[in-house]
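hey can u check if this looks right to u? its 145 residues, i copy pasted from the old doc so theres a chance i mangled smth
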Amino acid sequence: MIEGTPLPVTDNPIDAAFWTAALRGELTVQRCSGCGMRRFPPRPMCPSCQSMELTWDVMTGKGHIWSFVIAHPPLLPTFAKVAPYASILVELDDDPTIRMVGNLIPNADGEINEVDPTTVAIGAPVSVVFQTVTPDVALPRWVLT
């Protein structure tokens, strides 16, 4: 892990279930109990029908790179130390309306700056992996498949 990395708050009632599932190695998204629409990022109300009732769906964690950016300095000092690195936008195979931002890493134990930025391509297939960085935070990251 990169020292000084800002970490998410994992006990917020809106997205705590997402972070709990991540610790188990599961990628989840909210599903509206009223209309069935999946949504990410988590939020308290369905943007389609305004229902406040929800469930959580476990996804396969497979998708493809929909877009990406290669981060170069100037950045926050913590991230400038490891630049350049790829931040990708992944469209999930389970639901193409869901896109998630994350880092591309070479393997489950890899660092965010270990993938050659010139090899990143839109459309490349990826799978989620989870890197446990503290006892209560596992970050979803992506590897090429």
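The two ends are 22 Å apart (CA to CA).
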